[in-house]
Amino acid sequence: MRNLLTTGLLCLAAAGAGAQDLGKKTFEQCVACHSLQAGENGVGPALHGLLGSTAGTVEGFRFSGPMKRSGIVWDEKNLAEFLRNPQALVPNTRMPFSGLTDEAALKALVGYLVTATK
């Protein structure tokens, strides 16, 4: 019984590590424009402190009017919806990304961003 429990816990840990790895790998698409470091804006705004922040408010970044007016407070649900289809959530946003259609990669990316943007 103990071996089954240990094996089960190891499998769960491996699955979590796999999701984190997939999230980090998926984020590689984002690094051309976004940084995880505070104040390091590029083509896109820095993502440090993303969760709980209001869209369009990163200091020193010039956002589109639609993004600034969106009123979105970033949480896991809004972030997933935006990353799935940015133009659907914020029409006319400047973000030149068509969205993630792979649900596993999307879920992993959101999970990665929850921890990586703290």
TrEMBL record:
Family matches, as InterPro entries: Cyt_c-like_dom (IPR009056), Cyt_c-like_dom_sf (IPR036909), Cyt_c_1A/1B (IPR002327)
GO MF term set: electron transfer activity; heme binding; metal ion binding
SUPFAM superfamilies for this protein: Cytochrome c
PROSITE patterns linked: CYTC (PS51007)
Name of the protein this chain belongs to: C-type cytochrome
Extent of the signal sequence: 1-19
Domain Cytochrome c per the UniProt entry, residue ranges: 18-117
Domain of life (superkingdom): Bacteria
Key words, A-Z: Electron transport, Heme, Iron, Metal-binding, Signal, Transport
Pfam families in the record: Cytochrom_C
